[in-house]
Structures are given as C-alpha cells and as structure tokens.
Task: structure prediction
Amino acid sequence: MKPTRRLSDADAASPAGHICRGEAVGHIINRTLKPAIAATSVAILNPPERQLNDDASQAPLSADDLRKLDAYWRACNYLSVGMIYLRANPLLREPLKPEHIKRRLLGHWGSDPGQSFTWVHLNRLIIRDDLNVMFVSGPGHGAPATLSNSYLEGYYSEVYPDRSNDETGMLRLFRLFSSPGGIGSHCTPETPGSIHEGGELGYSLSHAFGAAFDNPDLIVATMVGDGEAETGPLATSWHSNKFLNPVQDGAVLPILHLNGYKIANPTILARIPHEELEALFIGYGYKPYFVEGHDPQEMHQKMAATLERCIGEIRAIQQHARASNDTTRPRWPMIVLRSPKGWTGPKEVDGHKVEDFWRSHQVPVLDPATNRKSLQVLESWMRGYKPEELFDADGRLIGELREIAPKGERRISANPHANGGRLRRALHLPDIRDYAFEVKNPAATYQSPTAVLAKFLRDVIRNNMTNFKLFGPDETASNKLDGVYEASGKRWIAETKPEDSDGGALAPDGRVMEMLSEHTLEGWFEGYVLTGRHGLLATYEAFVHVIDSMFNQHAKWLEKAKQELDWRAPVPSINLLITSLVWRQDHNGFTHQDPGFLDVVTNKSPEVVRIYLPPDANCLLSVADHCLRSQDYVNVIVADKQPHLQYLNMQDAIVHCTKGIGIWDWASTDEGHEPDVVMACAGDIATMESLAAVEILKAQFPDLKIRFVNVVDIFRLMPDTDHPHGLSERDFDSLFTRDKPVIFNFHSYPTLVHKLTYNRTNHENIHVHGYRERGNINTPFELAIINGVDRYTLAIDVIDRVPRLRDTGAHAKNWLHDQVIESVGYAHAEGIDRDEIRDWTWKA
Amino acid sequence: MKPTRRLSDADAASPAGHICRGEAVGHIINRTLKPAIAATSVAILNPPERQLNDDASQAPLSADDLRKLDAYWRACNYLSVGMIYLRANPLLREPLKPEHIKRRLLGHWGSDPGQSFTWVHLNRLIIRDDLNVMFVSGPGHGAPATLSNSYLEGYYSEVYPDRSNDETGMLRLFRLFSSPGGIGSHCTPETPGSIHEGGELGYSLSHAFGAAFDNPDLIVATMVGDGEAETGPLATSWHSNKFLNPVQDGAVLPILHLNGYKIANPTILARIPHEELEALFIGYGYKPYFVEGHDPQEMHQKMAATLERCIGEIRAIQQHARASNDTTRPRWPMIVLRSPKGWTGPKEVDGHKVEDFWRSHQVPVLDPATNRKSLQVLESWMRGYKPEELFDADGRLIGELREIAPKGERRISANPHANGGRLRRALHLPDIRDYAFEVKNPAATYQSPTAVLAKFLRDVIRNNMTNFKLFGPDETASNKLDGVYEASGKRWIAETKPEDSDGGALAPDGRVMEMLSEHTLEGWFEGYVLTGRHGLLATYEAFVHVIDSMFNQHAKWLEKAKQELDWRAPVPSINLLITSLVWRQDHNGFTHQDPGFLDVVTNKSPEVVRIYLPPDANCLLSVADHCLRSQDYVNVIVADKQPHLQYLNMQDAIVHCTKGIGIWDWASTDEGHEPDVVMACAGDIATMESLAAVEILKAQFPDLKIRFVNVVDIFRLMPDTDHPHGLSERDFDSLFTRDKPVIFNFHSYPTLVHKLTYNRTNHENIHVHGYRERGNINTPFELAIINGVDRYTLAIDVIDRVPRLRDTGAHAKNWLHDQVIESVGYAHAEGIDRDEIRDWTWKA
Result:
C-alpha cells in the first residue's frame, strides 16, 4: 500500500487528485487538522478546471479542424431532424412541400444536438489517441443522435443493409424512424453501439460502470440526462466510483447533459445555483468540468479542450495506478455540458420559445404538413445545416468528413463491447460433484443450501478472476454465502480502517460487489453481462421487487435481441438468487414476506425467463451450474439460506433438476400404480412440509397410495405449447393423473400455480397451498400453519379430498386438528427458538 | 416576488442563506461574475457552523440539564439492550443469570443509541419552544430506540396497556420484542409515533416531506441511516427541498446518522473525505452541521447547541418567508451525526472490535446464555447505565426524568400526525355529474377519458387547496391532465425563468407535484396520506413497476393497521391512475408495454386493494369519485389518455361502476335468454374491440344470441369467499353461464383472469385474450391483432367456440382472416397515422 498522502499533496502530485486511503483519513479529518482541510477544500472546490473553461486562449482546434468537426455535427443534426419530419425529399434537393412531411410526427429532438456534439468530439480523440470508447445514451428518447452517428460511421448500414449509405437508404432511415414499429425514438436493442435501453430512465451510469469493470482499456462515455438524473437509481449510481478499481477496470466518463428540461418541466439540476451543482459532484467524488454556452464555435473549442483534459486525466490516473499498483480512489473527471435544449433548432415558433425550452423536447415545429409558415420554419431550419455541403450526389457523407470518423471497431457504433456476446468467454466452472453435500438417506440431515453453494461459487470466482462477479446488497454474509470470501474479498475503493479485515475483508480487487442499492447492483450486473461477462446476484426475496422494473426491461431487451436481432450475439444470463425466503421471515415479520417476484417473472416472454426452486443443497448446485452455463436468460433461483433437510445425493439431484419435475419414489407409496392422491410441491420449505405430511399419512393410512411429485422448474407446469420447458398434455396427465386429487404445496402465492395450470385436464382437482397476505405470525411453523402449507393441514386436505378417506379419516382428522392447535399454542410461548420449533415439528 | 439578491448578500442577510430566485441567477452565473462566485462559494462551503462545532465554548446545557438528559438517554439505551436480551430480571435486581437471557437473540442494537440521543435532544427543545415534532426513523431495524422513547413517554402503555409503565410491563415489552411475531425489531405500523415502516429502506426522507407538506407548524425530524442513504430512492429524495414551500409547508430536519456501518460493511458516506461529504449536502441544497464524536458529555453539548441552532434557523426561515410571503428556496439546515455504531455498547468482544464496527449492528454479545464471560460482559454493559438510578421501585422512570419528557400530544410518540387518520378531513368533492361527457348514443363519439377527469380534478384541487395534491413524474400534461392547471400550477421552489409561465405554470404554491422520480412521488404521497391528507398519482402504466415494492409495503402497512390496530384511525387511500396504456404504445414500442402491475396488486390482501378498469370517461369519473371518498385502500385505476369511444351517460356509468360488472343490454342480443356466447371485457381498449366484434357477429349471424358483459371492478371475478367484492357462485354463473363459451377480452396479461376465475363453474370455457410479450408492432391495431385482442380474432374465436357456428361460420371466418391480413398489410404502409388507422378499423 502506498504511503498516505494529504489531499492537497495528492492534488499537487498528479493531474487527478487521489483521495487518500482511509487508514489515515481518520487522522486527517480529525479536529486538529480541520483548519488545514478548510483551506484544502477551497482548492478542491475551485479547481483549476474552472480557470480552464474561462480561459479563452484554450482553443485546441485549428480552423480547419473546427470547420470539419462542426460540419460533421451539422450532418448529425440534419439527419436527426430528417428522421423526425421527412418521408420524401431527404436531401432537400427540391423545395420542401407538405407531401414530404410525415403524417404522424414522433421522436425526440431536444437532446439530440448535445449528444451528437459529444459523440463527434469523442471521435476526434478516438482517432488522435486510438481510444477504445463506448457510448451510453442516458437521455432515452434521443435516439436520433445515436442513429445519426451510427449511420454516418457506416456501421448502421452494415447491420441493416436496407438503410444503405446513400440517398435511398437515408430516406428509408427517415421513414422508418418512429414510424410506429419501425425504429424506436429511444435507444433500443436494435440500435448498434448501444447496451442501454432508453425507455425507462435511471440506469445509464450503473450500466456504464458494469461495462467498465474488468475492461481496463475501455472508456465508457456516458451521457446522463438531467431528467434521468432526478431518478433515484441514477442519483445513487454516481457513487459507483467507490467500486471502480483504476488498475483492473476501465474508466467511466460521465457527461451530465444539463439542457435544462424534461417533457414539460425544467430539471432540478438546471435550476440550482452553479456552486450547488459543482458541490454536488465534488460530493459524489468527481472532478467536474463545465462546458457551458450556446455559440457552436466557442462550444467546440471548449468541448475539445475539456475532453482532451479529461481523457488526459483518465490516462494519467490509470498510468499512475497501474505503474504503482495504487488502487487509491482517484477523483475521476466528469463533464457538465450545459447546452440549450433543442440546440440549433428554431428559437421561437408561433410566439412560443422553443430552443432552450421544454417545447423542443419532442417535435419543435408541430404542423409543417398543414401550415405553410411552419413548413417554412422547418425548411429554413434544415437548410441552415447546409446539407448540400455535407452530402455528395449519392447522398453519402463527403469524403473529408468521413475521414474524421474512426474506422473499424474503433467506431463507437461498432465497438464490440456493445455487442458483448461477441466477446463472451464461457466460464471455467469446477465440477459440482466436488461440492456435493453427502446424503446417505433422504430427509435425515440438515444443511444450509446457500452455504453449500458458497463453496462452489468460491471456486467459480477463483477460476474466473476477470469475468465473473458476485453481487449483493450488503447481504452476502447474511445470506450464508460468505464462504466465497476465501477466494476474494469485497470490492472497496474508498477509505479503509484496520478492522476492515475482520470478517469478509474489503479489498480493492475484491470480486464481491456489495452496495446497499439493488438498483445499482442490477444495473452493474446488466452492464457486465451485456458486455459479455458473467455473474450472480443474491438478494432478499421480499426486496427483489425493488428491481421489478429493471428485470422487466432487461427481459424485454433479451426477447428483442434473441428473437429478432441475429447480429446480436447471445450474452450470459442474469442469474438472480432469491433467498432469505418468506417461510423463515417470522422474526422480520410481514414486511419481509413477499414471494411475488415470480408472478412478475412469469409475465415475461417464455423465451427468456426461467424459474427454479431447488428443494435442497445438491439440487441448488445443479441448478446454479446450469444457469451459469446458460445465455440470454434471466434465471431466477429460489433457495433459502437456513439449514434444511437434505434429500437427494448429487447424482439424483442432477437427474432430477435436468428433468425439472419428477416423482420421488422413495417418498411415494403408489409403486407405479394409479395413486389415490398426488402430493406435489415446489420450494424447499414446501417440500419439507409435504414430505412430513406423507409421513403422517403413511402412519395413519398404510394402504393409501400416494404419489410424491417435486417440481424444480416451475415452467414444467405450463403446456409445451406455451413455454419451451412446458410438459405435453400427456406427460402432465401421466404425472398428475386425469382425475385424482393433487395437493400442491407451493413456495409462493398459490394462484401462480393456477395461472400456470388452469387449462390442464385435471386442473379442477389441483388444490394449491401457498402464501397469503396475513399478519401476526409467531414462528416459522405457525407461519406455515396459518397459510396452510404445514404438514397437518396438508394431511387434512388429503383426507378431505380422497373419497375413501372421508369416513375412515375422521379420527385422524381430529388428531391432526389437535396437532395444529397444540403447535400454535406451543409456539405462542415466549422465547422458543426457531431451531427447536423446527426440530420439534419435524419429529412430531 | 422579492427582488433578487446575490447569494452572498442573502447569506449575510438572514440566518439561513436564501438561494436567489432563478430570474436573475442566470446573470449571476454568467462568465463575468464567476470570479465573484468562486469567492462566494468559499463562504458557502465553509460556513460558520463549522466554527460552531469547533467552538468548545458552545455549551448550552447546564450541569443539571446535562445530567438529566444523559440519564434519560441511559434509560433509553438500557431498555434497548433489555429488549434484545432479557426474558427475566428486567431491572437487574439480582445478578444476571443464564436463565434470564432469551433463548433466541434478535433485534438491532447498532443505531439505537444514536437515534435515542437525537430523540431526547428533540424533547428538550419541544418543551423549551413548545414545538410540534414528528420523528421518522430511517434506520429501519433500530426500533428499540423508538420503542424505548415511546415507552418512557407513557404513550406506548396507553396504546398497549399490557405493556404497562412498571416492572411487569417492562418485562413484557422485553419478552415480546423480537420474539418472533411479537414486536418487530424495525418500526412497524404497531409502533406508536411512526408513519414509516422500517423494513425496506430508502423512503424516510420522502415520507418526511410528504408529512411536512401543508402542515406549516410541523417539524419532521428524520433520521436517515447511512445504509439507507445508499439506496436510489433516498439518494434523490434529498432534492425534495426544491418542492417544499416555506410559507405553506412545515419543515423537515434531516439527521444523517453516520454511524459508519451496514450489516457487514462500512457505508459509503462514512468512508469519503469530510470535504466530499460536506460538499454533497451543500450540493443537495442544505446547510450541513456536523455533530461528531463519541464522548457522551461532549456530544450532548454539541448536539444541544446544534439542534438549537437548527431549530432557530428553521423558525427564522419560516418567520421571514411568512412575514414577507417570500417563497424563495431557503438553505434548510441538516445535521450529520457521526457517532459510533453501537455507541455505549461493548468495545470489544472475544478479541473482535464491536462498538464503532459492524459487529454491533445486530446483537453485539452473541452467547450470554451459554458463555459465562459473555454474560459478564452483558451484565457489566447493562449495569453501566445504572438502572437503579433511573427507575423507581415500581420500575417506572423516576420523576425528575419524567419531567424532561414532553406531555400530551407534544410527546413525539403521541404526535397526532403520526396517526393521521385522526386528523383526516373528508374532501370537498364537486358533483361528478357536472363534468359528465355527453353520450347520446353509445359508441358514437370519441373523447380522452383523462381529459374529462382533468376538469373534475381541477375542481377537486380548487375545493381542497390545503389537503389534496396531484402527483406525477413530469407527465401531467402528457397524460392529458393539464386541465388541472386552471386551478393550480406545478410546485416549484427553485430558480425560475420568464418562459416558465408558458404551458402549465411553475408556482411556489402549486398543488401539482412533478419530479422525475416515481419513488419520491410515491413516498411523498404515502407520507401525505399517512398524515391524513388526500391525493392521486398519475403515471405511465409500464413504469409503475418502478414502485412495485413501495406499493407492496404500503399495502402491508394498511393491512396491519386496518386488521389489527384499532388505535390507528383510517387514512385516505392511495389512488394510482395508471395511464398511457399498453395498447397505445405502438410508437414507444416494446419497452413501454407492460400491464403487469395488476398482477402485483392482486397478490396483496383483498382487504386493502382495489382495481378498476373504467371503459369510458364517465365511468372514470364515477370510479375516481368513489376512490377519493374511500379510505385504507390502494386503489388502482386503469384508464387511457387517448381519445376513445364513449358508451355510457353519467347515470348509467354510476350504476354500472357501482355494480362493478354488468350486462350491457344495448350491446347484447340474448334478450335475457341463455346466450350462445358471452362476450366479456375489461379495460377501455379491450371493450372497444369486443364491441366491434359483436357488431361483426351481428351482421354475419343475425340469430346468434350474444351476451355482452363489461367488468369495471376486476375483483368481482373472484369468489365472494376470497374477496369482499367477489361475486357469489350463483351470481357469477348467472352472468357467465355454467357451460357457454366466454370470450373474455382483457386489458392486461390473460393469465390474470384465469388466476381470478380458476375455480368458477364455467372456467374451462373462459377463453381470455390479452397482452403477451412480443415485439415488432406497427400500429395500435396491429398490436391488438398480434395479441389477439382485436375484433376479428375475437369474432373468429366465437365462431370456433359456438358449436352451431363451426360449420355455418366457415365463410365468415375466411372473410375475417382476410381482414386481419389486410389490416396488418395496410398498417405496414409507412406514414399512416394512428387516428386514421383507428377510424378505419372501427368502420371496417
């Protein structure tokens, strides 16, 4: 570790002020040094870059460079306007007429010029320094900027040959754009060069950091919309810099696009004093540079100088860190680009301010097809870009402008990281058999499934130190996955203290990513897999709902990419381990009981979602192994962290999980015949209670023919016509019979099973037990009883449903009812611990 | 409006520096003034409060005050420890023995001392200044602090007489605490004085601002956990200060509890340099005060001085604003309390650091029941608080300490705002008949339902200018609710520009709350209703999933409060208007198509959730009226913003919505007889398509007996045994028949209808059409066709399902198939606008 330096020293020593490592920071921030810091902070908060921006002599662009760069930018802007308006006459070869205008005007103009402005300036430095740059477009509905650049770079036409690099192709691009169902007006999976869906807002920065992790040469330039910046997920994702290792990871260069407006309102960050804005980003740990203005010529010089400086600082930070293996958190640069909304568009239309106002957010001139004056405004706006100087007779960008765009994979639109499946390397996975929990007899021993998984994950990490990450919101240890710390610590690029090595150690190169923000974790994870790497996110069941919407959007991305976009290579799956399950949330209570994420998942396309409920540790291993090998899915694994009974040895577990559903002969009494009743179950706790019910029934009714069916892969319940994992009608009927009662004990809300099986032959005999929203629970077993997923209630249900037991079972029913009452009564006694209850109930 | 002042002037002029209103800020931040600002920002970023904290002479507490205050705090801490550990010997009247220790140790100690510390200091100023203070406890699992204080203030025993204010009651409190199912270890609805559920983290500040809105005399002291502070929702909710009007609203005093650790990790904010932390909160627009240290005596003086100063500033800000009607955004004070985690607990246990480390997050001493040394550590820790000096012979807090707690409703635990139903005033609602859209003939005219609703909401606002708010994420106008701006503008307490009056005007007293953060809006809204006021939140259907988890938690809160807590008075409902619906998201595409929020809602307790799908504008009015009158629900209303056909006049709409489901005779041909087929529908677009299908069928098969059933209240589909709105088996069968085909056209995912109706007599004949995840859509009508919710596919399904049409319908089927193909083909032509398609298809 490097000797600790004072902040002011660090500032002086390197172009980017390194923040001092924590050991000594406590001292620095102590009372006696505070006056010194007060002085230091002046320097920090008024850094030299302010002078840079104010210094008119900073003009790195020659007149010729400036002319070309501006021309290229005008070409982008011209194309953006063309996409919104034109269905004919794409190059304005003739005067604009109403019939050239689209009949439905859609798309978003507001952020396009600023985004293109940034892109073309990035191009300059990509060429100059041979940079590897990705672009993440946060202001979602500004796709014309990305599309224009991608089209001008030629990559768009390579991917979509029908939108060729000539007048015909340009017209086709224009007509398809935001023609409903054509090309989206926000960045979609169809957009080359993008890993970021621009529909829902808030994830640009976390996606960017996910892309930058373990990609040391990559610079992820990220436009953050000032609207998007108001969302919670975005607001906290600035702190991702505390997890980015300057030695091993690439860089993220955030560019806050402060163009001032959302759809119909100013943005908050545009309406606070400059010094608050500056303080905010210093507070987030960045070194903010401001590029502010509206005159393109001045702005080009400012942006060129600022970007040069930022790239220089990034390189200096990385060189320093890598030369000296100093992982101290640097103060990474960022840019605040304060340019007018709808920059270069009409200043005023019909007496309303448009440029630099929310009225330029979408379509600035509303009725050019029907209003002559509007048509003139549009024509004069478009001709202002001088298309005749930008495109040749074929409609292709002129040669001298083509030259200032990067080539090949250096083109931002063609950056291979943005089609991460192309870079995907399969994980080097250890053999799960080596991690098996020994099961000699089923249901005889207890073990925590996640603790077993942890050993496997530990070695997955060891074998894949640069392309696998484990994510968790401060719960890795709580979820009993702390075995992974033997392989690697928790990523931490902030201050440290000596005691941080006690327990899972903090480490600048840790492979475990912990931050108390499910949004940021999921965003990192998505960015990481979309650039071709692997991971697993473990989180509390009740709170995975925090990322419902992110899951939805990622599943939609996968569906589009997989089903419609051959050019996108498959990416590793998102693997979500849902743990700390509802049935062990007696102590945390009602708020921590919510198994409903599965309902959200089952609504998404069957092509991209998978749900597994392994009943024990070896099944969890088998399922996890399968998921880590898969691609283009969101895999949801539901497995508790508490010790549970173990049933299957490794070989049986592999067979069982591969089938996804199966009869457990050792728990059944039907001996291959038509049973009296089917006891079905899905989920570890549900399985245990079903097995216990079978034990009770065996004792009470030795002649009863019971078939025990365990479901791991919940989509096996669906018809094969509706889901690739679905069972045919015949297979389903052969498992569940056509007319016998099925007592289905389910981990989650019971209606989910009905939703999946409503059209099965025997559906009216499927009786599902599961969680329902009720409060006031005292023990895990009482939680089971109150919800009717306990052994006694299950057994009673069997007696009620099997005709021949209705009379003979009366005595047993009474006994079972007594057991329920006694259990609840016993549980109400204070101070009974959970394990004791569980042991007691199991033995009962 | 006040004349604009320079920031530095403002700082000099008033105790809290007012930020200058925007009109002139643009000038201030221009190039020429930048050097001046650079100087100013030094003053801002090193404000005088830093000196305050460093000034040892600031000691407002007399020796006697200090002694009592510390004793009171020790009593809180003693009780907190007692809750975690003791099942007997609550006052340590005898030496501690293993059998006095609970057999299962649960609960969270870490944040308790800091929270109680803050509470007791608030008490001092409540008494001194007769303040009206609420407390929001963000560090969720620190309920012992809230419980201790509530118990010492006596209010806890008033609410729960079995936990009386004596030794018996104390023991009962100890034993119930975190005994599974007893008293939660985080703040739950059962906690008096709390409106904030402490399970999921991230919403303390937005809840606090919601409580403060329109409560001018209220101060909401809000502990923000430094773990919680990492969540996205919390990170952006600091910006709520841009929406708080110092004239009309109360104050929020955030206290960031920087105790450094989460469950098993340091927190980010505790591991950044002091100057970054300070800059961050200045950037968020606050004036941060730091109270840092570990010595209780010093910390008491610091906290007393700092709280005095903060309360003084709040009062000064309010007096200034109210005397001069100056709504300029003030720089509200906030406190950073950097105290050790597990403060006053064991410093070290078994060689591990505990105090000031994450090991004190939950239970610091793990095994006192079985380890003699641990028992000694615990006993010596507890005796360190000197319980014998704090509690009298009866186990009651001694008199001189009782005196330093506030009395009656000034007790934080008894603050009536925290049981907001007690303060609830019914809305003054205008008569919906006055806003009716005229419908002479069904299905003859188009209208935007939300535009009609807007007029009603406009007058709801007008009539209830201090207890109703409309919330929306920058989409009020986009959702065609901009009619409300006639009554009131958009709340904005930040810089403004002259052009801001164009369109819905920004206004410091605006009743419309717009911020691009669904989390913050929902948090404000929850805080607002839990303190007894009313509102409605309108949001895009696809992105309401952003707040799935907040919805879940609020529904759970309501379920608990309503079903189990008689002492909590009913609160106004949360009303969510879901609009910009899936069926009109052809242009925004796949990402904007997600009607699955309803699945999440149907998983929650039937006692607290309601879903309405009004088919037209008058039904929307009727439903909205009903929802605004209701209490203790989450009402979800699904209604599109686009123009739709209108069916029912106001009187019929009221009757129909009151029934929630009904036969539309004018669309049916069964004339009261058993029909051949039931055409059922729910949702505006689904209803239109079903009606169109009926028109086609009438023309093709004049003898066909069709029954048309429209569903507004989706829970009518459930059995009356499962939901209070459910239909009895008999009523359901009389509507849907026992054996005839039911072609159900549904707004959302089709499986939801199966989930609700799976056990109905006629279920196997219910064929549901609805949204499925598929991409590549060109027009709204193609979206309908691809999902099979269009008129042609519905009609084809009828032909397939009605036995006697199977032969005679062959010709019609062919014709219908041709229509489908033609529609899709036609739609594929570029540039066709949506209205045209709709008109065309309707007339087809």
